[in-house]
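Archive transcription. Copying these from loose printouts into the bound notebook so they stop getting lost. Printout 1 of 2:
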Amino acid sequence: MLKVIVQAVVAGSQVVGRAFTRALQQEWAASQQAAKRQGGGKQGTKSAVADLKKGLTIQEAKQILNVSDLNDVEKIQKNYDHLFAVNEKSKGGSFYLQSKVYRAKERIDEEIQDKMQKERSQFEEEQSSPPKT
């Protein structure tokens, strides 16, 4: 009887061990893919920090506000205003959803600001370099 119990415990622990190992391998692969998608270097790190700070990726923020083009600032603002008003607590909306809409807009604004800053620094760099002859 004791032998059967020991065998069951050993078999169960082997199954759990294999499942845990497989889960770790999958998580490692997923984190590697996410790192590749973020890009390497300074820009990738900056994007990852922004994702952590706001709790949203730029893709999630675009989905929440139902926009695909970050250059269409008017549509972003229109969708934000609509979703924020619809989820007003006094109108029976959800504060949780309203805060998600707010964070999505905040994340998109940060991405637009980073993009503009990058373009500005490239422009200044081009202006400061001597003309090639």
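Printout 2 of 2:
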Amino acid sequence: MRTPINRLSQIRQPSTPSTMLSSRAFSSLLSTPRLQPTLGARLPSTTLSSPLSSLLSRAPQQSRSFSASASLGVRRVTFRPSRRVQKRRHGYLARKKDRNGRKILVRRTLKGRKELSW
């Protein structure tokens, strides 16, 4: 059985700034701007002279909060029309099964509709 490689042992390198920026874990965090919160806009201007400010100035700034960006991150293709699914959801047999569906059929019959449902 193979032993898992300790992730911390891979990250630990000499603590010079150039080696920290070239490490895999740190660069992968910078390459995902959706997951990076906008700390630069919330910090007072007196703390921007710290080493953290140089990293924040390199990171792309966001105009939305994290939760708004996360909700917009995945776009799904939701409109794929199908008559079979339409009949399953809104068809005559689906209306007959449900109590509210039977009410719809009665209302449409009383109104004189030719088509009661799909």
